[in-house]
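Example 3.2
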Amino acid sequence: MRVVIVGATGNVGTAVLRALLDEPRVTSVLGIARRLPDRTADPYRHAEWAPVDVAVEDADEAVVRRLAEAFRGADAVVDLAWLIQPNRERELLRRTNVEGTRRVAEAVVRAGVPQLVAASSVGAYSPVDDDTPRGEDWPTDGIPTSHYSVDKAAQERVLDELEAAHPEVAVARIRPALVFQADAAQSIVRYFVGPVVPVRLLRHGRLPALPLPAGLRLQAAHADDVADAYRRVIVERARGAFNVAADDVLRGADLARVVDHGRVVEVPPPAVRAAVAVAYQARVVRADPGWVDLAMRVPVLDTTRLRTELGWAPRHTAAEAVEELLDGIAVGQGLRSSTLRPATPRPAGHAVMPLRRRGEVGIPESLDRYLLGLYLSDHFTGATAGLERMELMTRSYADTPFHAELAEVTEQLRAERELYRDLLDALGVPRRRYRQAVAWLGERAGRLKLNGRLLERSPMTAVLETELMRAAVLGKIGGYQTLREHADDLGLDPGQLDELIALARGQIDLLDRFHAYVRARAFRVGRPLGSDDGR
């Protein structure tokens, strides 16, 4: 079987990718994402990849056409593309979540794919006021005060229309409870908590008491168990809806025991909702009060159908999934994708240790502390400006054959910047934040240069941007070489620096190839960037 996963870099997508890699009946997997992962890292290195943004504005036919081309020859398409943030950009969320599903469905039909497996949710169900388990026949009209639930219900209507118009397509809907794994820890923090709340303090201990809405009951499933449900649905070409949840339903006392002490403080739900609303408006947290409504009103899931028809059974309890998540939050755990990136991302091969060290890290008296500190701070400043420019290039040249590689280098630069930040902290060198602010402003100001065009982006800009980035990466190599020269004095591992130099030379190779591509088009009439005539 050949399977295409749309949204293959997120929490569930990564787990589904792992599950399919272990399934002998699945012989090839194509991952589709708006921003590609590090394709040298597990599990992403085992799949083919294509960059497609299902939510591009005013490009309906173009997106459907690109998806259909990618879907051709597939036995199943798994649609996991979904945005939870930014909460406040409601139109963007709906365009991704609802219109994105419709675009995927149209492409499935156009490409003649026999099965579509879509990621629905317990959040699609209509609200309840009891703990009676509900099967897949419970109405999916959503909870009106939750934008997530409203979009999940709207997605269900898109799938209804597909089933009615094209009965030859086996449409399956996976409706899981909350999905947790350690590798998704930092992404969940970014989606719901934000940078203000000091969640990393969990590594030093738990709260003395856990405040929770009175009457809360929570179902959850480990991402690998949810992925196993997807795997079974795919290989059996099953149709219809399937609830997914672990056996245990967690209440306040259960959740308190998971966080080590068993003490819970029950708070009236309206008070919790009001507190979340205030924190959300103050931008202290990223979750809006609709998430409280969702937590209090969704039904308990009955998973009988999945168990009896497909032989599924969870290997983890909900309590185990929550505990694993909390352990991941404490250390900022993640993976090498833009969605699941850890609290401190690393380049390929450096996902575990921030810096490999050979001895005591520091600047000895034999080196000029002030000059070396200023030098490293300036390189960190350059990394800030370079990342901003590379992010812009990745967005601007999405219609070129190089988009996937540009996206990959962007993630490498993001990780290298964080590595430099760790290095400054380890050596006790001040970051001189005002320099980073100036670099950020300078990079933004540089975008105002028109390059001969007033109302559209000049093709000459691509040539100049590539030349600037190439010079920046060459400068970065010089910085790594300087650190390599003094690695023994600084207590750093020269082997790691050699690897970073090799990584940067690979970035130079890409920029050289991209420069050849753009310079052949920038100054020729009738040969725009993105023209499909080779590299």
